Amino acid sequence: MSFYKNLKFMSLILPTQPGPIGVFDSGYGGLTILSEIRKVLPMYDYIYLGDNARTPYGTRSFDIVYEFTLQAVQRLFEKGCHLVILACNTASAKALRSIQVCDLPILDPSRRVLGVIRPTVEHVGQLSRSRHIGVLGTAGTIKSESYVLEFRKLFPDIRVIGQACPMWVPLVEYNEMYSDGADYFVKKYIQALLSQDEQIDTVVLGCTHYPLLLPKIKKYMPAGITIVSQGEWVAKSLQYYLQRHPEIDARCTRGAHCTYYTTESEEKFAESASTFLQKNIEVHHLDINE
Ligand code: DGL
Predict the structure, then answer these.
(1) Same structural domain for residues 236 and 168?
(2) At what angle do helices 231-244 and 117-124 cross, to 10 degrees?
(3) Is there a catalytic annotation at residue 81?
């Protein structure tokens, strides 16, 4: 499946000189991944793009997530990125493969788009002793079965139990992480997950927003269950990827700078992003659906 609705897309002229690494999320969640990436790889330049105007992606159809994600990737390429990380599980689950297989060969076969699911699975598969793993994610990620399929490929002995947590992203997006409502919904989905399989010993936070709920998640997760946030593992995997691909590494500029773009209001993004990053940032508005 490919999404070429207009000729403008096909006649895209992309800058060829080296550029920043692009990091894309449907909203703020990818900032948790970006922070970890910048800890491990501080020397590169980055562009973060949050599609806050159209978030959440988690409840949207395959076609729409694919269309939106492709538009974002296209914009990041136009901004000079040769490497784009889909720091969003929903986009990784619903759009990554189509973009890699159908779109990159036409857009520019030398550019790369990577996701967050595979690096997470590679790490988590080695952790579980019981070989029963829980995955918490958006409805879209869980329904796509992307985690189940990736585990099946890499660790066929593992049983994967998914649980959609549709209220968690809104809790984070609306800064309600510390509210009583958050307690209610965090407990509810953790219980729903664990009631499906008593042998779960490792739980993946399969959505980039969820690390912001970590204090509450820890409160309701029984002791002895390992909770995995994916940022650190995505970052290490990217580091390893760049070591293995010097031709891509050479096309990533090193100035230790990050530019932030949002499809929504700049002020709103800057204010909310400070919760994720614990610092003030300068943000620019960008339309990606033109
Ligand atoms: N941050 C996205 C993810 O990792 C989900 C947020 C949304 O639903 O847009 O799946």
Answers:
(1) no
(2) 100
(3) no
Distance CA 87, CA 117 (A): 9
Spell out which residues line ligand 1, taking CB within 6 angstroms. 25-27, 29, 55-58, 88-90, 138, 141, 169, 207-209
With vertex at residue 150, the alpha carbon angle to CA 147 and CA 154, rounded to the nearest 5 degrees, is 135
Catalytic residue among 81, 165, 207, 252: 207
Overall domain count for the chain: 2
| Domain CATH number, residue 150 | 3.40.50.1860
The residue among 182, 202, 229 that closes a domain is 229
Specify whether 165 is catalytic.
Answer: no
Residue span of the structural domain in which 257 resides: 19-115+232-285
End-to-end CA distance of the chain: 21
Residue 43 near residue 241, CB atoms below 8 Å: no
| Closest atom of ligand 1 to CA, residue 30 | 1
Atom of ligand 1 nearest to the CA of 57: 9
Q: pLDDT per residue over 40-92, tens digit each?
A: 999 999 999 999 999 999 989 999 999 999 999 999 999 999 999 999 999 99
